[in-house]
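Researcher: Sequence recovery benchmark, item below. Answer with residues only.
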């Protein structure tokens, strides 16, 4: 059966062109017009979807063609657009930049092809004019059927736009649909893992509304919506999931300013498999909720809050006690750092952490083991059987004296690999961020372990 939804991929020649700013402006316009947009982000990034979510008031999703094959990506797309009227997909890096920097796999171009979505290029002209036309022409012609059907200019003055629009349209043969001028009052700050998170931006709501008001004035919104409506129908995809748990185990997620990196698709999958998700703050709460049957400690910025995390001794001890009782624990990157003996902050001061694992976290001053990975387990454990594989990525400026050796991570299209992960019957902890839809069994076994722990708790009370 076929279905259709107006949709668009926003791409750019490279990072820093303002894709997120433009995406947020357009999403806010669509919200203001009552169009109920769905938002997606190409690639493994966590932070941009947080901004999308702040705009649309619902969870945004990732769309990653390294993590999953094309048919599964289309399934996740049709899941993510439920109840929505239009869909906007923000690209990552440059339009053709994909796996290992030498493939179009998982690029915005690849996503646009798989979703049959028209592409609008976001370009920042800076001090260029005709050279900008040459750059954009290269993007249009680098691959056959690039799908590029429009241009938006960012940080472009009204006068410069008046010069560029007719020239670009004559040279490229596609419409220039508008621009955003420089708006320093709406700038989104950055730090070592990219933009600061949406919750940390002061006056974000006002900034989004200002961007939307400007977009209504200087962007051809009707023309953009007409282009989105030109996308052809897609065929529905079917995915058979593992059996749902008969009982409903409770998985407690660490969620606050220190732990905020989760794939929305992962959380939704856990719920589909029968889990109930609850939240707690290692920064503020005395520990996980009493009803918890498993812990999920995601990534984030524990290094920025190491002192506060350490001073919340009650939560540290509660997490350690839960792990020692055999409660299933999944910890990724920042969550892994929290489970260790200690964590150094940016100034080099070392702070006690939960002490579930013996390692010590420390800053390296550089991005380490960055990018996509396929993780293969050496041993059977909480999430996996021996030699099971799952895809994910690493992105961190902190390392550990004991990163684990129960699995190994291998970069795609590369010979580079390294040992990682601590795993056991009730534990999976390491730097890789996992994407459950790349191996449904990982999520199913996590939920099953939580259900078994709940059953043991009940038996112990009887």
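Model:
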């Amino acid at each position: 059966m076929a279905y259709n939804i107006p949709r668009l991929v926003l791409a750019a020649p490279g990072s820093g062109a303002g894709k997120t700013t433009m995406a947020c402006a357009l999403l806010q316009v669509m919200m203001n017009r009552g169009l109920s947009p769905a938002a997606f982000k190409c690639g493994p990034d966590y932070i941009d979807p947080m901004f999308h979510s702040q705009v649309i008031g619902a969870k945004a999703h990732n769309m990653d063609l390294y993590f999953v094959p094309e048919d599964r990506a289309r399934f996740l797309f049709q899941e993510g657009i439920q109840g929505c009227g239009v869909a906007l997909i923000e690209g990552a890096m440059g339009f053709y930049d994909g796996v290992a920097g030498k493939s179009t796999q998982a690029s915005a171009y690849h996503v646009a092809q798989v979703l049959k979505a028209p592409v609008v290029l976001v370009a920042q002209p800076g001090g260029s004019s005709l050279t900008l036309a040459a750059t954009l022409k290269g993007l249009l012609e680098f691959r056959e059927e690039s799908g590029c059907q429009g241009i938006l200019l960012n940080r472009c003055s009204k006068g410069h736009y008046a010069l560029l629009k007719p020239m670009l349209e004559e040279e490229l043969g596609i419409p220039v649909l508008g621009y955003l001028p420089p708006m320093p009052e709406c700038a989104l700050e950055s730090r070592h893992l990219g933009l600061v998170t949406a919750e940390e931006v002061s006056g974000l709501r006002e900034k989004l509304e200002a961007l939307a008001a400007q977009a209504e004035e200087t962007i051809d919104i009707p023309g953009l919506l007409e282009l989105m409506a030109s996308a052809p129908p897609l065929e529905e995809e079917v995915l058979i999931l593992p059996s749902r748990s008969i009982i409903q185990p409770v998985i407690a997620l660490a969620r606050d300013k220190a732990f905020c990196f989760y794939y929305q698709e992962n959380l939704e999958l856990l719920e589909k498999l029968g889990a109930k998700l609850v939240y707690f703050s290692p920064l503020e709460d005395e520990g996980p909720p009493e009803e918890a049957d498993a812990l999920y400690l995601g990534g984030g910025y524990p290094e920025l809050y190491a002192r506060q995390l350490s001073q919340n001794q009650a939560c540290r001890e509660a997490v350690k006690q839960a792990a020692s009782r055999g409660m299933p624990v999944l910890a990724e990157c920042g969550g892994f750092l929290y489970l260790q003996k200690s964590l150094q902050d940016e100034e080099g001061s070392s702070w006690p952490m939960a002490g579930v694992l013996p390692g010590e976290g420390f800053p390296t001053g550089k991005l380490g083991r960055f990018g996509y990975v396929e993780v293969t387990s050496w041993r059977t454990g909480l999430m996996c059987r021996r030699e099971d594989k799952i895809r994910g990525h690493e992105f961190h400026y902190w390392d550990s004296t004991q990163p684990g050796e129960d699995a190994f991570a291998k970069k795609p299209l590369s010979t580079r690999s390294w040992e990682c992960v601590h795993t056991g019957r009730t534990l999976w902890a390491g730097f890789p961020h996992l994407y459950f839809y790349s191996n449904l069994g990982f999520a199913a076994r996590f939920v099953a372990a939580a259900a078994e722990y709940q059953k043991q708790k009940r038996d112990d009370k009887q």
